[in-house]
Every structure is written in C-alpha cells, then in structure tokens.
Amino acid sequence: AFGVNVSVCEDCGCISVHYNSCRDRCCPMCQEFPKEKWVDARREDILDAPYFHVVFTVPEELNPIIYSNQKVLYTALYHATSDTLSELAADCKYLGTDIGYICILHTWGSTMNFHPHIHAIVLGGGLDVKNHWKDNGKDFFLPIKIISKTFRGKYMAELKQLWENDRLEFHGSAAPYKNYYTFKELLNTCYTKEWIPYCKKPFDGAESVIRYLGKYTHRIAISNYRIKGMTESTVTFSAKDYKNQGHWKEITLSGEEFIRRFLMHVPPKRFVRIRHYGLLSSRNKKKQIALCRNILGCKKYISKLKDMDAPAIIRLLYNKDICKCSSCGGKIIPLPTEQHFIKPKPHMLC
Predict the structure, then answer these.
(1) Residue 251 and residue 243: Cα distance in Å, rounded?
(2) What is the structure's pLDDT at 338?
(3) Which residues does 283 contact at the CB level (< 8 Å), separation at least 6?
(4) Is the dihedral of CA 125, 103, 86, 84 positive or negative?
(5) Which of 85, 190, 219, 338 is 20 to 30 A from 120 (CA-CA)?
(6) Given this model, what pLDDT does residue 75 score?
C-alpha cells in the first residue's frame, strides 16, 4: 500500500525488496525505530539523580464521558497531573523546588479495554528559588494520599468547568449524563471514591531511566508478540490477569471486536501524547539541566544516534547493514530501469 524500494546487488544480481514504513504511531511494526531515536535524544537530558515512576488514573465511572470527549478530557488529565506535581513539589513542606517530569498518556488495559491513565517519569529533586539542588534521596518526596486528593480535586474542577461551559459531548453509553441530575450524581460518586495513584520504586541509575522510557513512550495497545493465533473470524491474544496475580492468559475475540478495541486507542489527530514539564520542558532544559548537572557534578550522556542517517542507525542498533547484499555481501544499488537490464528472480528482504 505504501510502495517498496527495490535494490539489486552489483556482484550477484540478487534483488532485495524493502517495504516502506507506514510511520503511523499506532502501528506495531513502525514504532521501534522512532522509539530508539527518541530515547537516545533524551539521554542528553538525564541526570544522575533519583527518578520515580508515578501513574495517575481516574475512576472507571468517568470512562464513557472521557471517550466521548477525548481531546479535551485527555488534555485535562495532563493539566491535573502537571498541576498536582508542580504545586506539591513547590511546597516547602514537601520539597520546595521546581522539578522536571515527562507525562505519557496510555488509554488501554492489558485486554485492550478503555483505561485512560498518565505515566509520569518524575525527577526526584529540583532547584529551589536560590538555584540550589534539593532532593529526598531514594524516598519519594510526596505522600501518595496527598497526591490522590490533589489530583482528584484538580481533575474534577476542570471537568465541571467544561460542563458549565457546554464543551462536553455525550454519545453512546455517556448519553444519560446529558441530564443535569445524572451528571451531578456522577460527580458526587467520583468525589466519594479514593483515587489511587501508584508510585514505583526509584530507578537504579540514569541508564535504567533511559531504558525504562522506551517501554512507555511509543507503546501501543497491543504488540505483535501478544497475538497468538487467528482464524477467519477470531483473534487470540495473551493478556495479564490482574485478578490472578498478573498471570498471563489467552483471550479469543471476534475479528470485529478485536478491531473495535484496537481503534478505541487511536489518539485524536495531532494529539501530543508525550509532554515535558518543569526542568525538562523545552523552554527550560537547555539552561536548567546544565545548571543541575554542574551542581551535582554528574557527567553528560551523549546521544549516540545524533546526526546519523537511517542505514547507520540500523547498523548500530541491529548489527544489520542494509546497504549490503544479504546473499553475497556485495554493494546494493537502486534497481536500474533500462529495458535491456535482465532482472533476476527477487527474494524478499523486509
């Protein structure tokens, strides 16, 4: 559908066919290369300091409304997350600094159900008003219960503001919430529930942060290795059963249901899923990260892939030279189009 590049070996005449990438951010085949380039570029922003992984989720009762208003309510998730982290980190009671963090939106659970949540990679320290570095060592500097209450208040406040400004739409299972009293009852239910953010243990060094980022930044709803089998009408894939200690199980769905679940997680057009805040924002990081690095006395991690072309990157990452023939190792060139050129039988090289 996207065309191919056909090359021929100058020595043995063997033809190689390279299919063009679709480059879609939801494609399970096309995300590995962008992921490696993005993670490598982030190496230059990493500090030898504590990092934490915090997950922000919302009650499942809000899922129908969020699905009907993806762009505005996904954006509200980012607003509530960033306001919570920045406000609490700046409070002298906890840390009293300007911190940096990266937020990544995921909308799926293991079974490809709709489960919007934010993964935040949080720098565990920051600069105070006098540009002095402060951190809390390997202990996370914010109490989880305080995060929960603050995040709930900020998200619900923006949700109510959107409702009052008539910016919400209600389709499908969200249709009943057009009624004022039904919507009010939903808000009361969400206020009474405890919103449970999750904080993982600190990373073991800057290199582990770099490796960990790749697991979340360019992930999609399902990867190829989880698809175990297909028939003309069904798809079988593996998923974690969190009700059974996270053991893997196989789920079989009709083809239509599998596609429906997958398409639920295609983000709105031009929606930015990876966002940087505080010390790691584009506006601040050039000066602030350099200052933090000087204070901490840590080395700068240099990008390995910067200014390299695609063949060189593939050669470095995968030890595969796409400029050489896979049969004899000779140099390959674009296939000539002259009529007198005798075309050997091609072999496929994906």
Answers:
(1) 15
(2) 57
(3) none
(4) negative
(5) 190
(6) 97
Q: Measuring CA to CA, which residue among 41, 47, 199, 46 is closest to residue 118?
A: 199
Rounded to whole angstroms, the Cα distance separating 140 from 201 reads 8
Q: What pLDDT shows up at residue 339?
A: 45
**Which residues make Cβ contacts (< 8 Å) with residue 21, sequence separation at least 6?**
2, 27, 29, 30, 33
Q: What is each CA distance from 146 to 119, 142, 195, in whole angstroms? A: 18, 7, 11
Q: Confirm if 51 and 211 have CB atoms less than 8 A apart.
A: no
Question: Which candidate, 137, 118, 131, 127, places its Cα nearest to that of 53?
Answer: 118
CA dist 88 and 125 (Å) reads: 12
Residue type, 249: K
The Cα 218–Cα 24 span in angstroms is 11
Nearest partner of 13 among 339, 340, 337, 330, judged by Cα: 330
Tell how many helices (H) and how many strands (E) occur in the chain: 9, 14
What's the token pair of residue 160? 């109510």
Give alpha helix (H) positions in the chain. 32-42, 63-68, 70-90, 144-164, 180-192, 206-217, 255-263, 285-296, 310-318
Structure tokens at 112: 């490809």
Residue where the block lists tokens 């200052």: 291
Q: Within 13 Å, how many C-alpha atoms sit on residue 163's CB side? A: 19
**In sequence order, what are the residues at sequence separation of 6 or more whose Cβ sits closer than 8 angstroms to the Cβ of residue 161?**
none
pTM of this structure: 0.86
**What's the half-sphere exposure (Cβ side, CA atoms, 13 Å) at 261?**
19
pLDDT digits (tens, 9 = 90+) for 130-166: 999 998 888 888 888 999 999 999 999 999 999 999 9
- Total Cβ atoms within 10 A of residue 259: 12
CA distances from 251 to 222, 234, 244, 264, 266 (A): 13, 10, 15, 18, 21
Query: Which pLDDT value is given to residue 258?
Result: 95
Between the alpha carbon of residue 329 and those of residues 7, 19, 118, 187, 197, the distances in Å are 13, 20, 46, 66, 53
Q: How many CA atoms lie within 13 A of 333 on its CB side?
A: 6
Task: Give the pLDDT score at 36.
Answer: 84
